[in-house]
Structure formats: structure tokens, C-alpha cells
Write a structure and sequence with these properties.
This protein has 6 helices and 8 strands, in the order αααβαββββββααβ. The protein is α+β, with helices and mostly antiparallel strands and 277 residues long. Among the domains are: 34 residues; 126 residues, Protein of unknown function DUF881 (Alpha-Beta Plaits, 2-Layer Sandwich), CATH 3.30.70.
Length: 277
């Protein structure tokens, strides 16, 4: 009886020690595994990267918003400078046109044959066709401008609803083919060496930038307008006008004066032109 009691007491103490030891080992193993799992979890790294990217994106937006007023101011100043330059060029061109016209007038007052072997009558004709003298007579006044209403166009077509250099070229070519004798665009007289090219939003005529609206003066034969309606290049231009809604108007009227060209033509010193009389 005593022996069994002692055995039970020793067994109870031993089991208590074993149970305590097992619990301690299990607790240490669990903490070790949990620690390892936490060290391998990439979520904290992803969160850190997203936070850093958000910070950089926010700084970029803030910088862009700060620079927007500066960029708009620079664009406004550039537009002002371009407009001022165009006005200055137009004033200079008018002065050159007046000088060319005066020279042509003085030469017309001379008689007989000039130093190039050209009669006065023939010289006057050449001056008209080469744009070296001002002219007047029956003709057309044509207005060409960007579209004012683009509501009916797709988004990718809105940028096309403006006048391109190719549109002006179509118009000018069709006018020459229909019997035009003299043409000017915004006061710039066209000659055989005139070029019509694009320069950003402006169009270069005689290497001078012009902005819309474009006013084209034309002097020519009485049947010029009827011939124009049959011209294929004019039909192509009409199609573009209808598709993109460009502003296009032709008025038949007498042109009081079309100024002389303001560009310098090649020197023909030493070359004999025309018939001697």
C-alpha cells in the first residue's frame, strides 16, 4: 500500500515535469516557425514599394501643375513675338512692293528700247506677268479659313479642320489653270518663283509666314469663274471644304489694286529678251 502510494507520487511528479518540458519545446518551435514565416512574407516589401511609387507620382503631378502657368505664359509670349514679327515683315514687304512699283512706273515713262533689248510695250507686259508692277481689273476675292464649327467631326478629325498648305496649293493651281493672270495671298503677290509651304501652324508664301484667315485676290479673264468650277483641283478642294467644314467663299468683283511683288527676282543683266523693234 505504501509502495503503491510512493510509486503513484513519483509517477505524478515525473509526468508533470515531462508535460512542462513538452509545452516549453512546443512553444519555442511555434515561435521559431512563426518568426521564419514573417521573415519570408513579401507583403511589407510590396507595400513599401507602392508607397514610394505613390510619393514619386505625387511629386511629379505637383511639379507639372506648378510649371503649367509658366508654360502657358511662354506660349503666349511666343505667339506675341511671332505676331509682331509677321507684322514687321508685312510692313517691310509693303515698302518693297511700293519700290518695285515706282521702278516699273519710271521705266514705263521711258521710250524706245531699254538696255535688255525689250520694247516699252513688251516690258510693261512682262512686268505685269512677273509681278513687278501693281495691277487692277475684274477678278475674284476668295476667303479661306479654318473651320469654326467642329461638333460634327470625330476627335481624330478636329486637327484636320484647318487650312493646310496643300489646300492653298490646290486653290492657286486651279486658279492659274482657269485663266488667272495675277494672284496675291494676304497681300503677297505670287510670281513664278513663289513657294507655298507649311511652317507649324502658319503657311509660308514667298518664304513669309501667313496666318488665317487667308484672303486671295485674283485678276483674270471673264470666264475664269466658270472654268474654275470645271477644274479637278478645285473640285478636290471643294471636297475637303465640305468634309471638314472649312470656311470658303468666292466673290466676283473688280480689284482696285493688287500690289507689286515684294521679293527680289534674279538679275537678267546681259540677257536679251523679246523682239527688237
Amino acid at each position: 500500500m505504501v509502495k503503491n502510494l510512493l510509486f503513484n507520487e513519483e509517477n505524478s511528479v515525473s509526468m508533470g515535469l515531462l508535460n512542462a518540458l513538452n509545452k516549453e519545446i512546443e512553444t519555442n518551435d511555434y515561435q521559431s516557425v512563426a518568426s521564419n514565416n514573417n521573415s519570408r512574407d513579401p507583403k511589407w516589401l510590396i507595400a513599401l514599394l507602392l508607397a514610394f511609387a505613390g510619393l514619386i507620382f505625387g511629386i511629379s503631378i505637383a511639379n507639372t501643375q506648378r510649371q503649367e502657368p509658366i508654360l502657358e505664359k511662354n506660349r503666349a509670349e511666343l505667339r506675341k513675338a511671332v505676331t509682331s514679327s509677321i507684322n514687321s515683315i508685312e510692313n517691310t514687304a509693303q515698302v518693297l512692293s511700293d519700290v518695285n512699283n515706282d521702278i516699273a512706273t519710271y521705266q514705263a515713262l521711258s521710250t524706245a528700247i531699254n538696255s535688255h533689248g525689250i520694247s516699252t510695250k513688251r516690258q510693261k507686259e512682262l512686268q505685269i506677268f512677273t509681278g513687278l508692277t501693281s495691277v487692277k481689273g475684274p477678278g475674284l476675292v476668295i476667303s479661306l479659313n479654318d473651320a469654326t464649327n467642329t461638333d460634327g467631326l470625330d476627335v481624330d478629325q478636329i486637327d484636320l479642320a484647318r487650312v493646310f498648305d496643300s489646300d492653298v496649293q490646290l486653290l492657286v493651281n486651279s486658279l492659274w489653270s482657269s485663266g488667272a493672270e495675277s494672284i496675291s495671298i494676304n497681300g503677297n503677290r505670287l510670281v513664278a518663283t513663289s513657294a507655298i509651304r507649311a511652317a507649324g501652324e502658319a503657311i509660308l508664301v514667298n518664304y513669309r509666314p501667313l496666318l488665317p484667315p487667308y484672303k486671295i485676290l485674283v485678276i483674270g479673264s471673264s470666264d475664269m469663274l466658270s472654268n474654275l468650277a470645271k477644274n479637278q483641283e478645285y473640285k478636290d478642294l471643294n471636297y475637303i471644304v465640305k468634309i471638314y467644314g472649312l470656311v470658303f467663299k468666292i466673290t466676283k468683283m473688280d480689284i482696285d489694286e493688287m500690289g507689286a511683288t515684294s521679293i527680289s527676282l534674279p538679275d537678267i543683266q546681259g540677257i536679251t529678251l523679246g523682239d527688237r523693234s
